Amino acid sequence: MLEVKKINRSFDGRRVLTDVSFTVESGRLTGFVGRNGAGKTTTMRIMLGVLTADSGEVRLNGAEITESDRRRFGYMPEERGLYPKMPIGEQLIYLARLHGLTPAAARSNTTDLLDKLGLADRIGDRVEALSLGNQQRAQVAAALVHDPEALILDEPFSGLDPLAVEVVLGVLAERAAAGVPVLFSSHQLDIVERLCDDLVIIADGSIRAAGDREELREQYAGSSYRATFGADAGWLRDQPGIVVREFDGPNALFDAESPEAAQAVLRNAIERGPVFNFTPHRPRLAEIFKEVIQ
Ligand SMILES: Nc1ncnc2c1ncn2[C@@H]1O[C@H](COP(=O)(O)OP(=O)(O)OP(=O)(O)O)[C@@H](O)[C@H]1O
């Protein structure tokens, strides 16, 4: 488990991280989301030791993290770092050897990963000869080739087509299932929502929400309901204690000022005809995101 505890960081007197704290659990995929400039990359760099914090600490499995711990991390930096002119296979083997793997292990990890990432037949190609999406897959391979004990990936899904997203996700999920803590940043909220076990939302350098995805959805559920009736639900607009948020014939999404007001809607609806659906609405990540970053 990786813990970020009360990290503060300023650049030239301007505070960009304020008391940033969150946890990346072992064996779970944690998505890190926030608008441009919110502080994701700075936080990740501090976790990696590429940048120092002004105060606060990063802990691994309960102890303050050391340089040798960090050498066993896998990192995919924002500024991608492969050598354009070097063949991809050679480069991955080199990186694995730098991390202390034997030549045989370095070779077998390389071929295994390129195979899983759909790049097996490109092993001898130079990085610059790959399409951008394939370069991105190669970057993911570079972060994983030395069997890291923790993974920190800055935007690993940017620029990938939907099939490539699935391929990369499969590889990351496999590492998480093997017990590795995996943190990745992304602007693609739909992907994060689908893939992640846990979420961390940052805005203006402070954490606005963090934790289990479903628990967060529960927590931000508020008092909204989704309903599908047998006929047009226009009458809802005149129902006391209700604010209609979305309306489409028999379908409605509404906020109720109290549980009683919601139950009154249900009673009224049943008197009017069939009710096909009446459930508390759990917000999507995009809705939670909008709410917490304001
Ligand atoms: N080396 C630096 N010197 C000065 N300011 C910096 C430096 N690195 C980052 N910042 C500032 O810190 C803030 C946070 O930047 P950061 O790159 O961490 O955001 P981010 O959430 O990763 O954004 P994006 O989604 O655009 O990558 C920004 O205002 C940025 O301009």
UniProtKB/TrEMBL annotation:
Pfam family, one: ABC_tran
Primary location group: membrane
GO molecular function: ATP binding; ATP hydrolysis activity
Highest taxon of the lineage: Bacteria
Locations listed in the record: Cell membrane
InterPro entries (UniProt xref): AAA+_ATPase, ABC_transporter-like_ATP-bd, ABC_transporter-like_CS, ABC_transporter_ATP-binding, DrrA1/2-like_C, P-loop_NTPase
Keywords: Antibiotic resistance, ATP-binding, Nucleotide-binding, Transport
Ranges in a coiled coil: none
Keyword check for Acetylation: no
All copies of domain ABC transporter, residue ranges: 2-229
SUPFAM superfamilies (UniProt xref): P-loop containing nucleoside triphosphate hydrolases
Membrane topology: Peripheral membrane protein
Name of the featured protein: ABC transporter ATP-binding protein
